[in-house]
User: What shape does this take?
Amino acid sequence: MENVAQVGNIRIGNHTMNTIPIELTINGRHRSLVVATHHTLLDVLRDDLGFTGSKACCLVGECGACTVVVDGRTVDSCLMLAVEADGADVVTVEGLEADGRLARLQEAFLDSGAVQCGFCIPGQLMSAHTLLIENPTPSLAEVEEALAGNLCRCAGYVQIAEAVLASAQGTD
Amino acid sequence: MTGAVVGSSAPRGGGYERVTGKQRYVADLRIPDVLQAKLVTLDCARARIIGIDSRAAERVPGVRLVMTAADLPQPMPRFGPQFDDRPVLAVGETKYHGEPVAAVAAETEDAAREAVSLMRVDYEELPAVFTIAGALDPVAALVCDPVLRPDDPLAGTNVLREHHFGWGDVDTARADVVVENAYTFPMVTHFAIEPHGFIVAPDSDGITCWSSIQHPFLLQRMLARILGLPLSKVRVIAPDPGGAFGGKQNPKLEPLVAYMALAAGRPVRLILTLEETFQAVRRSAAEIRVRTGLLKDGTLAFQDIHSDYLIGAYADTADRVITKSNYIACGPYRVPTARILARTILSHTTPSCAMRGIGTPQMDWAVESNLDEGARRLGIDRLAIRLRNLARHGEAFIPGDTPADGDWQQAVRRAAELIGWDRPSMPGHGRGIAVGFKAGPTSGLSYSTVRLLADGSVFVYAGTSDMGQGARTVFAQIAAQELGVPSERVTVVMGDTNLIPFDLQTSASRSTVFMGTAIVRACHDINEQLRALAGEVFATDATDATGVTIDAGLVRAGTHEIPIVDLLKRGLGTLGGELIGNGHVRKDTIPGHPLGGTPAFYEFNCTAVEARVDEGTGEVILLRHVSVSDVGKAINPTQVRGQDEGSAVMGLGHTLMEHYIYDDNGRIRNLGAIDYRIPTSMDLPLKMHAEAVENGDGPGPYGAKGAGEGAALCVAPAVAAAVQEATGVVIRDLPLTPERVWSALRERDINLTSDGSTQHDGSAVPAQSVSAGEEHTR
Assistant: This one.
């Protein structure tokens, strides 16, 4: 949908900031909202909409904890302004479950022991989710490359990769 | 449904929440009416604070509070797990890059950030020390005000503590060969993916503090002390941390946030940036000189070790780190004579604290590498020299202390077998093998309450923090095993001092052993009650314990056999109810013991690697990495494997890439994820394998020991040994970055060209044998 950007401003306390209305789809649900022009997609997801599954860590696009899928591509949501997501289709980790059932990828993460502290896991899942759509039968090297932008300090990289491969093998 | 709960890879407790984004870490909590806080820091290390002008900041709409040292109680409250040296805010002068001098709380993060940018701090940069040599200079600036070190003979120096350990007389010990070298280990940081977060809300007569902390009860104790509140009025809620590794053990900025919340009369929330966490916690750097005496056959004759650990501006747990790692500096070996001098040295840098391995990765790097040098000097196989000297199970290898508590040779032999030690390496490849060794907790206190509900489901209350090690899962498995219920019916409640009985701390890989045992005891308490209940129901003599048995969820009393659930129904009657069991474990301190107590267990690991080096770039390419840990019993094998693989990868971080870079003014130049690299999925060895030795010989439930730190301890000496074998160069400084390795290779080649050079103990020595035809891959 086309949006004519209407730059406005809202007051928070006595404070004025530039805002803009945007429309986007998040996890299949259409939303219209007004966002601060300088806020990132991560800010809006977490603070304005309560999708706290996407995590804030490095905020410079290196750790991948904030990874979401925008129009089919993985994005570090800390690097994308919310206004840039106007009209976009966004999937977050909260959108992986369908009909109250875990996606196969999520199940595989649990079965393989890929989850330790869990803080990086939403980002890992989103990167793996996109990989498997683009490449349903990846090699180990392809999995490792696809997840290279998602840091894990518990460093369960081996079990994470095993989970992704197990999930891929379960794909028709 | 039961029986083999322990030893099975039960699904992770909290796993569902973690794969759906529903897990709530501190930063995910939404507290009504909360103010957002930001820190004011200076772009230098040590500075005299001349004045702080907050007028412009206070005019920013939405700003509700600016707090400086002048707004805090006088004298400035100080705190710390070992010494009360850390002020709530810098007072008079800053001691390290990033130390907060003020903080702002506002309605929004935007407003707080803007206000911080408008804070004017007049300061004068002062001379400071950032290195061991600098700190030890007789005219060096003192990091800690001597006033804070009364009756301390070292108060006029930057040496916080000096420790002497050992046995026998090294000066008269006989050896055929003496190998002496110095090794350095860089400053590295924990880099938990979850930055530290704190929220404090004032109540009518106390406070609630949310923190991503490992030791909620010690935080509660500290806040109660400095605020003058009863423990019962300080509620600490500790959501599962998103990684901790020792960096979240003890309070950091909670006192500041508490004072801000009390001053504002509203909840205040401070979530650090990753850069701020780099300025909050790190591992201590070290320079360690090792003089190893050996007999011709490779038998260790003595160890003479002098270690200097560079800690930061405040002590935190750093001196404990040095004590624990140096007391066992000789490793798991039979060493007839030992002398260890360890110094804890303050500097104007990020305060260091415990980090996975508590000082042992530094020590292990030096001592294991030096043993390799000895083996090469003597022409003895590096595996053989280790097997020859390893203490045997039950041997009192540290005089008067906990004897060797495992078949350590077994783990070493297994690692050697897995790497194929007895087969020749491919040309250009090198192998290394090393052992990692760490003392477990030396004292502890853990309470647990277990409730068996009327329908046979179970609550376990445990004050452990599950920071990824999987304590939640293990505790559910233990309770399920002991009570004969499926682990899915067990709910483990953690992280709230208002609900959960006291636990001293989550550190030193203690929780399975200490809290696990407390849970077993609480379950036994319940089983006693079940026996009594069966006695009542079946009119059996309840006092005759042999008359009633409980096994795998069934209660047998005489000829009766009844599932626990049915017994509860009959025994508890129409009103229902529950059985409540309590258990605790206390391991007291031992006055006069160098560690304050004997280690409850040791963590033992053997790591073997195969590597080659890209001679064109200096890149170390790890082909295989095997890690074998003696864990006693893997209560959850999948989790143990994950912990060990993760620990190994963390070890690869400080081995190959991680280090803080300071400039001459004490500023960290590589703050944050772009310039400070940790291993990614692309940095793994081509093949990784982690395995556990399970002989059931630990002090914990089912013979478990601690696990999860061991695999990080000896990665560096194993990798460096492989690099040495592959290239002939010996490098004694970490990390083994391509730049450093390339430089060493270049020096080797220059020396080879000029030839006739003699061996020396510099950072790189000429090769004894050089592998020819090294493949250049890029």
Remarks:
- Residues 104-169 of chain A form a domain with the DNA polymerase; domain 1 fold (CATH 1.10.150.120).
- Chain A has a mean pLDDT of 91.
